[in-house]
Amino acid sequence: MKTPIHIAVTGAAGRIGYSLLPRIVSGDLFGPDQPVVLQLIEVPSVLKSLDGVLMELLDCAFPLLENAITTTDLEEGFRGVNWALLVGSVPRRAGMERKDLLSINGRIFVDQGRAIQRNAASDVRVLVVGNPCNTNCLIAMNNARDVPDNRWFAMSRLDENRAKVQLAEKTGRHCREVTNVAIWGNHSSTLYPDFLNARIGGRLVCEVISDVGWLRGGFIQSVQQRGSAIIHATGLSSAQSAAHAIVETIRSIAEPTSTGDWHSVSLCSDGSYGIERGLVASFPVLSREGCVEIVQGLQTDPFGQSKIAASISELREERSVIRELLKN
């Protein structure tokens, strides 16, 4: 029996958590022979609901679930964890400006970053999902300075998956034939899904799709606004697709990248492609032996450069709103 991996999940009683937890303990995340310990964290007002979620998990009798706890205490929740999945955050409500959301959630991620630094295992890795995830990740990372910057990630895989589906539907192909899709910038309405370097059936997208107007317009907008479209259709935000993207993100980080492809994740910029060092932005990356590297040398055209620049500008603006929270 392998040594169990300890995984903390915040916002574990929410819709994403409800979809995610069975995937973790069924072996989808780390394989069919890797036991896990779940450390489920929630705010006091929904702890009873979280206890009910755990009851259901236990009733499934998952062989890989070694142990599980529910808690409102960040110290207990992050103690000894190898992975911290920061899913929970306050959602944006009607009449709330983005800066208000940044300020409210920012304080939450200050506390979580500090608790991770004090309690997590020495090999901890952190994936931030709660929005605005790039800047929340920046806040938590800067409040846990003993945890190396290359252990921090924010999710853009859901945007990558959405882009693949749109390209596949446009061409009547299956999404598995779509590769090399890069998401650049912020996980927001300014994100840039890069069609210039993407491929369908091994061919460049621009060789398969001649409708440049759609690629520069409808395609980008459909990816940027997909989350809003789902809320409009169902009255609820994405949950199953977000949970699936979390699983894919962690597996893509932990496992070697398939030859000739890459995946998208937000991480601390090292200055590649002129993106300011220290910002948490989405890049195309490769994973090799547990290390994540930004793909270098990709072609960008003036259109793509302008889109990336706009998204990076938004990240700078968000950082300016929460700058005081970065001082620990």
Task: Describe the fold and architecture.
By secondary structure, this protein is α/β, with parallel strands linked by helices. It has two domains: 150 residues, Rossmann fold; 162 residues, Lactate dehydrogenase/glycoside hydrolase, family 4, C-terminal (L-2-Hydroxyisocaproate Dehydrogenase, Chain A, domain 2), CATH 3.90.110.10. It is 41% helix and 19% strand. The protein contains eleven helices and 14 strands. The strands form four sheets. A six-stranded parallel β-sheet has the order 3-2-1-4-5-6. Strands 7-10-11 form a three-stranded antiparallel β-sheet. A three-stranded antiparallel β-sheet has the order 12-13-14. Helix 5 links the parallel strand 5 and strand 6. Helix 1 crosses helix 10. It is globular, with a radius of gyration of 19 Å. The chain starts with a strand and ends in a 7-residue tail after the last helix. The model has no long low-confidence stretch (mean pLDDT 95).
Note the topology.
Blueprint: E1 5-10, H1 15-25, E2 36-41, H2 47-59, E3 65-71, H3 74-77, E4 83-86, H4 98-119, E5 125-128, H5 133-142, E6 152-154, H6 157-171, E7 178-179, E8 182-184, E9 192-194, E10 199-200, E11 203-204, H7 205-208, H8 212-224, H9 226-234, H10 240-254, E12 263-268, E13 280-288, E14 291-294, H11 302-321
Parallel strand pairs: 1-2, 1-4, 2-3, 4-5, 5-6
Antiparallel strand pairs: 7-10, 8-9, 10-11, 12-13, 13-14
Helix pairs in contact: 1-10, 4-5, 6-8
Give a short overview.
The chain is built from eleven helices and 14 strands.
